[in-house]
Write a structure and sequence with these properties.
With about 325 residues, the protein is of the alpha/beta class. It has 2 domains: about 210 residues, D-Maltodextrin-Binding Protein, domain 2 (3-Layer(aba) Sandwich); about 100 residues, Periplasmic binding protein-like II (D-Maltodextrin-Binding Protein, domain 2), CATH 3.40.190. The chain is about 40% helix and about 20% strand. Strands 1, 2, 3, 4, 5 and 11 form a 6-stranded mixed β-sheet that branches. A 5-stranded mixed β-sheet has the order 8-7-9-6-10, with helices on both faces. β1 and β2 form a beta hairpin. α1 packs parallel to α4 and α5 crosses α13. It is globular.
Length: about 325
């Protein structure tokens, strides 16, 4: 089927990028130092989920640990993974599906801290046109859905959510569109539906662009579903264990603070996204905790195998290593 062929092709393409990164990239050094602080470049996908990094920067949590953290915004989790493997970044934030996919192919990664858990309500979901023919989830069979990166958390969680409605995921085609462009692509009828997360759910609502939320995808998943995590390569952790431990302490402090201060998070969101302050004030936020939810990372691996993203599952006990 069309969807199955596309999925297999994308897996090959993603792994080729990762393997290429392994072969000729920079060494995974510590990032150097400045002013007595260890420099760290952290690769991040520009969504609400990464708020703890900016909270940590604002409140000096990283500097308190002797770290000078520089955020590097990257469009998809798969590219974040390749950046970590090549040494362009020292620590990455990526969806767990991309991490599991890379690990299943022998890419030596380790999750070192929880990233973000799925938010409730309108935090994430499928947008369709108000005046379109798609009225129910079943109407998506045979249609094209945009995700920010194929064969990662978007398509995996959409498949899982739609299965609860009896939708045949094999009859769906996924195409890659950057989050900020999805609303326009949808209204121009270049796609049939778009999977978006905050702040792009709120941005499309504020734009009043003739789209509506058809399915709250994360609401159909296990409670506290871990969307993404902070990770490093095994070699980086073995060579810079002290630096990794410092980052773990700082990001865990930031995760706790972020969960407890939602209004502050909404004020910070415009600093790394294009969403305006008035729209940011209405954002639906995810859940932040220090628990990496290893059992649900295994759930992700099970579904990645089911949907053909991987051919074998990695050892989760070796993948999720959050102790400092």
């Amino acid at each position: 089927m069309r969807g199955a062929v596309l999925r297999r092709g994308v897996v090959v393409a993603v792994i080729a990028v990762l393997v290429a990164a392994c072969g000729g990239g920079k060494s995974n050094n510590s990032g150097g130092s400045s002013g007595g602080l260890t420099n760290l470049t952290v690769g991040l996908v520009p969504v609400v989920d990464i708020a703890p990094v900016y909270v940590g920067l604002k409140h000096g949590f990283f500097k308190d640990e002797g770290l000078n953290v520089t955020p590097k915004l990257i469009q998809t989790g798969a590219v974040v993974v390749s950046g970590a493997v090549s040494g362009d970044i020292q620590i990455g934030f990526s969806n767990d599906t991309s991490i599991v996919t890379a690990a299943s192919k022998g890419i030596p990664l380790q999750i070192i801290a929880a990233g973000v858990n799925a938010g409730k309500g309108d935090y994430a979901g499928l947008l369709v046109r108000d005046d379109g023919s798609i009225k129910t989830p079943k109407d998506l069979e045979g249609k094209t859905i945009a995700v920010n990166g194929r064969n990662n958390v978007g398509s995996l969680t959409v498949n899982a959510a739609l299965e609860t409605f009896g939708v045949n995921w094999n009859k769906i085609t996924y195409t890659e569109v950057p989050f900020p462009n999805m609303g326009t692509a949808l209204t121009r009828k270049q796609i049939d539906a778009a999977w978006v997360v905050e702040p792009f759910v709120s941005a499309n609502k504020a734009a009043n662009n003739g789209t509506k939320l058809l399915v709250q995808t994360y609401m159909k998943l296990p409670q506290h579903f871990p969307v993404a995590s902070y990770f490093v390569t095994q070699s980086y952790r073995s060579q810079h264990a002290d630096t990794v431990a410092k980052f773990q302490r700082a990001i865990n402090k930031a995760l706790v603070y972020t969960q407890a201060h939602p209004d502050e998070v909404r004020q910070l969101v415009p600093t790394w996204t294009q969403i305006k302050p008035d729209a940011a004030a209405k954002l639906v936020l995810p859940e932040w905790s220090t628990d990496p939810q290893a059992a649900l990372v295994k759930w992700t691996a099970d579904h990645a195998l089911k949907y053909g993203y991987i051919t074998s599952e990695p050892d989760i006990s070796k993948l999720v290593v959050t102790n400092s």
